[in-house]
Amino acid sequence: MSTRVVAVVVTWNRRDLLVEALDALRKQSAPVSALVVVDNASTDETPATLRTYDDLDVVTLAENTGGAGGFAAGIERALDAHAPDLIWLMDDDTVATPTASERLLDVYASADPTPVVLASRVVWTDGRDHPMNTPRRKPRASADEVRRAAAVDAIPVRSASFVSIMCDADTVRERGLPIADYFLWNDDFEYSTRLLRGRTGLYCPDSVVVHKTKAFGSTDADPGSRFYYEVRNKTWLFTRSRGLAPLEKAVYGGSTARRWIRTIAASSDRRTLWRGLGRGLRDGIRSGPRSNEVVLRNVRTTDGSNGNDRLPPTDGDFPTS
C-alpha cells in the first residue's frame, strides 16, 4: 500500500512565489495525495488566485497568525480531512525540486528504525546551503545511530525547520500540533524537538528544496524589534516545553545565550535588542504560551472550507513541563 503524503503550505502575501511552490508540488515524481494551503489573511492577489485551483484544500484565516498558527490550522485540517501517513510542511517561498518527496519517501521506507521526521536539504537560489534552515545534527548521536542513518544516506538530527519536513502523522496525533502563540520564531524548533524526543529524525541531503528568501543569511542577523519574539519564545521552550530533556535544555540554553550576545554585539541598534532581551525574558518567565483555542478563537475560516467551529486542540493536548 502506498504512503499517503499530504502537503501543508502556509502563505501570506506572496502570490507569485506561492504559485511557483504549488506548481513544484504538483510535479513531484512521487505525487502528494492532497495539498492543503493555509492563507494567513493575505491582502494581495493570493485569495483570488487560490480560487482558480480545483485541486487544493484551502483554509482561509481571518487574521495573520504567522507560521505557528498557520501550520497548526493546516496540520489539523490534514489530519481531519485527508488521512495522511506523512504530513509535508513547507513555506510559500519554498520550491521543491522534482524528486524532493521521492527521496524523503525512499529514506522513510528503508531506514531502521522508521523516522518520525524527515528533513530536506534547503538551498538558496544560487545553490548554497541556506543557513536559515540547516537541521541541527543530533548531539551525542550513538555510533549505531550514525551508522543506521548513513546506510540510507542520511544524518541523525534533533530538530529541523518547517521549510521542508515530513512528519509521521501518528506521532503528530500523539504529541499534538504546533503551538500557535509561538508567533514569528522558534515554532519549528519547539515542534520538531517535541516530535523527535526519544524518536528518530533524519536529514536527507538527496531531497532538495530551494528557499527563495530575499537575502542569504540566518535569522539572527540584526533582528531589530523582532528580537523580543526570539527571546520570549526560547524562554518558553526552555522553561515549559517537553521537546528537550533537562540536560539538552542546559546545553541549548548556553548556546542560545552565547548567540544572543553575539547578535547584540553585532547590531547597529543595540538599545532595541537590549530592550527586546529584557522584555522577552520577563514575559517568557511570567507566563507561558496561550492555548491554541485562545490564540485562534476569533480566527475563523472565511470561505467555510473547513468549518467555522473547528479549531486546533487546546493546550491540554500539548506537552508542557
UniProtKB/TrEMBL annotation:
EC top class named in words: transferase
Pfam families the UniProt entry points to: Glycos_transf_2
Metabolic or biological pathway: Cell wall biogenesis; cell wall polysaccharide biosynthesis
Positions of the Glycosyltransferase 2-like domain: 8-136
Superkingdom field: Bacteria
Keywords: Glycosyltransferase, Transferase
Entry's Gene Ontology molecular function annotations: glycosyltransferase activity
PANTHER family assigned: GALACTOFURANOSYLTRANSFERASE GLFT2, RHAMNOSYLTRANSFERASE WBBL
Protein name: Glycosyltransferase
